[in-house]
Amino acid sequence: MPSASSLMQRRGKNAERTFKIHHFLSLLLHYSLTDGPSLKQRRLEEFRKNKVRDYTDSDSDLDEYDQEDRGLILRQNLAVVLVRFIRTEVKCLLLRVCLRTLRILSRDKKVLGPLVTDSALLTLAKLAGLTTSDVSDEVNDPDSDFYDNIITSLTEAKVLQGHTNEDEGEAETNDQNEEQPAFDEDAKSDISNTYSGDVDSISWFGSHRTSINELHRGGMHHKVLERGRRDRRESKMDVEEEVEEMESGEEAKRKEAMKVLCNVVYNSAWAQERFSGLRLMCGLIERVSSSVSCSNPSSAQFYELRFMFLMTALRPELSTQLKQEGGVSILTAALESCLEVQWKDQYECILDSQGQPISLETSQRVTEILKILFNITYSTHKQEPSEDDAALYRHLVAILRLCLMRKCVLSEDTDELQGHTVNLLSALPLQCLDVLLMVPLEPDSEQCEGVNMDCVHTLLMFMERRLEAGDKIKEKLTPILILLTESCRAHRETRHYIRKYILPPLRDVSQRPEEGTTVKNRLIRLMTHLDTDLKHCAADLIFVLCKENVRRFVKYTGYGNAAGLLATRGLLGGQGPRASFSDTQYSSDSDSDTEEYRQVKDRINPVTGRVEADQPDPMEGMTEEEKEEEAKRLIMLFNKLSRDNIIQPMGVDEEGKLVPMSGLKENPLSEEAKSESENEGETDEGNKD
Predict the structure, then answer these.
(1) Which residues contact 327 (CB under 8 A, 6 or more apart)?
(2) So what's the pLDDT on residue 191?
(3) Which of 36, 294, 542, 673 makes the best surface tag, with the fewest CB within 10 Å?
């Protein structure tokens, strides 16, 4: 291990060079992003505010477009320079600055060209620890000469910009020259602070806008801190602190490289394809697998998981590869490590209700793991798992129970964690979810028929919060509705518990079923939602809670709300065949009516599902002949609307499905309409004669 004196000497020799390049890169980045406005540009902006435009196209607009193009070219060239530069043996602190600059540039899709080549991706992958192969393309790189030309072009651009800015006044220049020594010393202090501050902060890059002039006037020669002063500050650090700083620098380098890769693959489909073609997924799996065994995970682990999520979400073949290489077991172990799980039984984790909430960093890592697991298991829901896979999934479900029951520091983090847990539970094989109910009862546990319902109660509370929120309702509600529906089909105790919560016995039927603020009211409102998938999910849950009995379903929802699901399943004609839709064998217990419901049962409107006020008879006082004439007039009106394709009369066939009236074999109404149409035709001919 190098001694403290050799380390300090080595760093002292590179201090001046590191600062020069650091300062130059920061100026380039700030200039390329902001194109520091000169006096001429400020005058032009003031003129634009005060003038009256007679034409849409003007020289100022063209100048603005030219300036934007020049800025884009400058950023692209800067990306080429940095990719080429980081392939050399760059020191850690300077390398971190270069990677930060690339991270900012990679947010712009127009600048991604130099970052999506194979050599650039391999370079970033090596810095991120995804591969150990050397990226040596010094001989084969066609841009070897172009690299030096870009440096020259950038310097000339600064010189031209400096000449333009000289019009801003000599007074400002003199002030800058007088403050030059202080600026250099403060800048160096800012550099050291930048390394220990927020990684996303680039405030120092834009804090000295006049440095472009200084760069031109002084060339590339800046005053630096005295060697002795820096050495005295470093002499306070012992050897252990120096080694620790080097290790943290390595970690920071990997983290910044992962950030750049995340931006690049998110913004470029070509980069996604090349990452798959270069087979870098193996290195990423090894990185995540090795970090599981570490007691103190690195700060780069979150970005490794984020990158894995992006690749498995964007490239299906990588999702399959991760699953085939044991991704479920690796990520389950990572999840167990993050939550520091302690086991009480084979499929039972110790849940300490008085324990510390999940920290922000841990909840972020757990969320990424859950998202990756969903990407590689979403197709296993209806598959029959093998014995080994079933044991692995049950082990995972036991950990997911902790994710549902534990709290995070922030309530929004708790909701997000539960949301991703629900998504994953809805993707796993249904027979493996019985682990959620296999926990022994506690004194304060929710229970139904001796079965622990704490987890089911948490899911109900989660669904209710999502119903009340109302934003992104399809994305947030569909998974929990599907999970509860399938759980009710599979577990009798779960169905009984949820039914008591959602569909209590009917007592007050003075309002429509969809009116109100209860969970039942909100779910019935969703049954007529514009989104087909969402309304079917809500209707399916209530239908299963009613044991898929049509009469009971209509009783709780009203025929108008139930018609959509009944038409889809061919049950409009009553209790039709349901074996083709569900193989669930329900118990034969009956749905007992309350005394309040029995008293008003005969006065309930089956369509609206409530007691309607008595309406006057519209045909009261009419003779039989007048009633017959009114009926004929209505038939003629319906017939005319049907011929003009304004409406299409529908009927229910033998299977209980809605079909056009013309498709029915025997339909008295259609025969009557046909005869009425013939009579109408004869009348028209008679009138014509």
Answers:
(1) 285, 372, 376
(2) 29
(3) 294
Please give the biggest Cα pair distance in the chain: 122
Q: Which residues contact 470 (CB under 8 A, 6 or more apart)?
A: none
Q: For residues 271 and 111, what is the distance between their CA atoms, to the nearest angstrom?
A: 13
CB 584 within 8 A of CB 489: yes
pLDDT, tens digit (0-9, with 9 covering 90-100), for 338-392 = 999 999 988 889 888 778 899 999 999 999 999 999 999 988 887 888 999 999 9
Nearest-angstrom CA–CA distance, 219 and 68: 26
Q: Residue 308 to residues 362, 400, 436: CA-CA distances in angstroms? A: 17, 20, 28
Residue of 314, 417, 428, 300 lying closest to 368 (CA atoms): 417
Half-sphere exposure of 82 (CA within 13 A, CB side): 33
Tokens 């084969």 appear where? 140
Give the integer Cα–Cα distance in Å for 119 and 457. Answer: 53
**Sequence spans of domains, the chain:** 4-245, 279-435, 440-575+582-608, 626-688
Helix boundaries (H) for 86-143: 92-105, 118-127
Number of H helices, E strands in the chain: 29, 8
pTM for the model stands at 0.72
- Identify any residues that bridge with 452 across adjacent strands, giving them in sequence order: 447
What residue spans of 86-105 are helical by DSSP H?
Answer: 92-105
Beta carbons of 391 and 447 less than 8 angstroms apart? no
The model's confidence at residue 241, banded by pLDDT at 50, 70 and 90, is very low
pLDDT of residue 81: 87
Q: What is the DSSP letter of 344?
A: E
User: What distance in Å separates the CA atoms of residue 681 and residue 687, rounded to the nearest whole number?
Assistant: 10
Q: Let me know how long the chain is.
A: 689
pLDDT score of 116 more than 50: yes
Report phi then psi at 630, rounded to 5.
-65, -40
Are the beta carbons of 262 and 307 closer than 8 angstroms? Answer: yes
Cα distances (Å, whole numbers) of residue 351 to 393, 455, 458: 19, 12, 14
CA gap 400, 483 in Å, rounded: 14
pLDDT, residue 194, reads: 32
Over 90: is that where the pLDDT of 48 sits?
no
Q: Compute φ and ψ for 523, nearest 5 degrees.
A: -65, -40
pLDDT digits (tens, 9 = 90+) for 152-184: 555 555 555 555 555 544 444 444 444 333 333
For the stretch 636-647, pLDDT in tens is: 998 888 888 888
